[in-house]
C-alpha cells in the first residue's frame, strides 16, 4: 500500500504519468473517490504519460472512452451512470479482456459482479485544498507497479526541482512505515 497527499492538479497528473511508465499490458486499475476527487485528472496524467497528446475527457456520459497509443489500447470507463452491472456485457467489456488492453475503471462498485479483479485499486479523497491518494495492489502485477514507483526514495525524485508540487508519501509494509515530503514526479 502507498499513501500520498497530492497538493495540486499537477501532482495528480504527475502520479498518473509515473503509473503509465510502470503499468503492464492487461492491467486493470480501479479509480475510486467522490465526484471531483481527481479520478479523471489522474487518468489524464496516465494517458499523457503513455504518449496520448489529445484531450482526455471524462467518460461520464459515454461510459467508456477508448484510446489507442501506438500498439497499446487503454479503455477509460466511468460507471457512475451505469444502471445495472449487466449492461457492461452490452457495452463490450468482455471484448476488452484480451490480456493486452489496460482498463481504468472509475466507480467500480457500480459494476460489481461483472468486472475483472483489479491489479491496482486507487482511492482519491479530499485533503484540504489537495487530495489524498491510496494505492493498493491486489495482484503480483499491481505489486510490481507499486514497487516500480519506488516512492519516496527514487533517484529521480531526489534530483527533482523543489519548485514542483509536493507529495507527502507514506509507504506501509510489514517492516514498518516510511514518510517523506518530496517534489511531485514529472
Series of H and E elements: EHEHEEHEEEHHEE
Provide the low-confidence segments as ranges: 153-166, 168-186
In CATH, the architecture is: 3-Layer(aba) Sandwich
| Helical run tally | 5
Q: Work out the radius of gyration.
A: 16 Å
CATH class assignment:
Alpha Beta
Number of domains: 1
Largest sheet: 9 strands, mixed
CATH superfamily, called what?
A: P-loop containing nucleotide triphosphate hydrolases
Topology, number of strands: 9
| CATH structural fold name | Rossmann fold
Task: Provide structural commentary.
Helix content is 24%, strand content 32%. It is of the alpha/beta class and 186 residues long. The protein has a 9-stranded mixed β-sheet with strand order 3-4-5-2-6-7-1-8-9. The two termini are 21 Å apart. Helix 1 crosses helix 2 (39-50). The protein has helices spanning 9-22, 39-50, 87-90, 140-149, 155-158; strands at residues 2-6, 28-32, 64-69, 72-78, 102-106, 120-127, 130-137, 166-173, 176-183. Residues 153-166 and 168-186 have low confidence and may be disordered. The chain has a single domain (2-183), classed as Rossmann fold (3-Layer(aba) Sandwich), CATH 3.40.50.
State the gist of this model.
By secondary structure, the chain is an alpha/beta fold. It has helices at 9-22, 39-50, 87-90, 140-149, 155-158; strands spanning 2-6, 28-32, 64-69, 72-78, 102-106, 120-127, 130-137, 166-173, 176-183.
Please outline the helices and strands.
Elements: E1 2-6, H1 9-22, E2 28-32, H2 39-50, E3 64-69, E4 72-78, H3 87-90, E5 102-106, E6 120-127, E7 130-137, H4 140-149, H5 155-158, E8 166-173, E9 176-183
Parallel strand pairs: 2-5, 2-6, 4-5
Antiparallel strand pairs: 1-7, 1-8, 3-4, 6-7, 8-9
Helix pairs in contact: 1-2
Amino acid at each position: 500500500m502507498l499513501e500520498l497527499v497530492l497538493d495540486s492538479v499537477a501532482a495528480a497528473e504527475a502520479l498518473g504519468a509515473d503509473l503509465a511508465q510502470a503499468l503492464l499490458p492487461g492491467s486493470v486499475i480501479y479509480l475510486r473517490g467522490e465526484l471531483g476527487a481527481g479520478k479523471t485528472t489522474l487518468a489524464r496524467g496516465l494517458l499523457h504519460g503513455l504518449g496520448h497528446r489529445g484531450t482526455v475527457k471524462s467518460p461520464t456520459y459515454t461510459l467508456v472512452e477508448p484510446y489507442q497509443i501506438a500498439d497499446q489500447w487503454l479503455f477509460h470507463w466511468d460507471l457512475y451512470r451505469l444502471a445495472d452491472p449487466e449492461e457492461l456485457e452490452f457495452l463490450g467489456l468482455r471484448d476488452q479482456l484480451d490480456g493486452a488492453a489496460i482498463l481504468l475503471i472509475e466507480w467500480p462498485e457500480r459494476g460489481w459482479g461483472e468486472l475483472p479483479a483489479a491489479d491496482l485499486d486507487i482511492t482519491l479523497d479530499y485533503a484540504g485544498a489537495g487530495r489524498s491518494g491510496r494505492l493498493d495492489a491486489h495482484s503480483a502485477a499491481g505489486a510490481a507497479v507499486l514497487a516500480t514507483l519506488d516512492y519516496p526514495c527514487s533517484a529521480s525524485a531526489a534530483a527533482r526541482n523543489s519548485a514542483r508540487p509536493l507529495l507527502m508519501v507514506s509507504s506501509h509494509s510489514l517492516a514498518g512505515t516510511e514518510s517523506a515530503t518530496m517534489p511531485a514526479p514529472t
